Amino acid sequence: MEVTYFINYFVTMLVVCNPLIAIPVLLNLTQGRTKEQRHSIGIWSGISLAVILVLVTLIGGPILDFLGVRIAAFQCAGGIIVFLIALSMLNAEVSPMRQNLNESHYKPPNISVVPLAIPIMAGPGAFSAAIIASRAYSSVFDLLILSLCGLGVGVIAAIILYFAAPIETKLGSTGINIVTRVGGLILASLSVEIFFRGLASLGVL
Which domain CATH number covers 166? Predict the structure, then answer.
């Protein structure tokens, strides 16, 4: 695997998952809970995200093979999905593919998995990016590196959500919106790359 691809993949996954978007949801769903409980939920959300990304990296490709879906077609579809998420981020909005109104008010016993890890952080965009990367670089060593990227994204998410309250206080809604828009611009560029790679593989270009 090329080092530049490794860096691009890590940045893509971090921007797609975007733990900053999960901050207001975490604070909303943990109203009335102690600081320790919020910290615990933030940490477990990051752990859940890491486990999900690793599992998708390792078994996502074989599932596509079983379903008879070509990776090039999945790249095109994944590029479109990621681009739609990027458009929502550019407008500082939460993509409807990440969550809907019912999910945002859903308070299960363990909110660290649903809805924080899935679908707010690990949504269709993250799944698409992980599967596309695992099919493009499928050696054991490459899958190990991709899995480490997923673990790294989970660790960063855990740290961000652990400090959710002070981060929101420091940045404010305006600061979070600025970070989200910049991330959306980066993500839009990466999504175009994914889409046109898929078209090239299909022989369209």
Answer: 1.20.1250
